[in-house]
Design goal:
Layout (H helix, E strand, L loop, with lengths): L1 E4 L4 E6 L6 E2 L4 E7 L2 E6 L4 E6 L6 E2 L4 E5 L1
Antiparallel strand pairs: 1-8, 2-4, 2-7, 3-6, 4-5, 6-8
InterPro entries: Biotin_Carboxyl_Carrier/Decarb, Biotin_lipoyl, Single_hybrid_motif
Keywords: Biotin
Protein name: Acetyl-CoA carboxylase biotin carboxyl carrier protein subunit
């Protein structure tokens, strides 16, 4: 299991995948908004989205787990 974590504090602007989706390494999975900038959170490896832990509008802190890949 690989975790996708927030690289900085911000608000979840978009969730680009759903649980069960297959993703490639480097694919944008979630977009955070911080200080009026959009920051894509990317999958570290290829895999399947096992669990999404956030939804649009959620506030996250640096290091929070956003999604889990299997």
């Amino acid at each position: 299991m690989k975790e996708i974590t927030a690289s900085m504090a911000g608000t979840v602007w978009q969730v680009l995948v759903a649980e069960g989706d297959t993703v490639e390494a480097g694919q944008s999975v979630i977009i955070l908004e911080s200080m009026k900038m959009e920051i894509p959170m990317e999958a570290p490896d290829a895999g399947t989205v096992a669990e999404l832990k956030v939804a649009p509008g959620d506030f996250v802190n640096e290091g929070d787990v956003l999604a889990v890949l299997s």
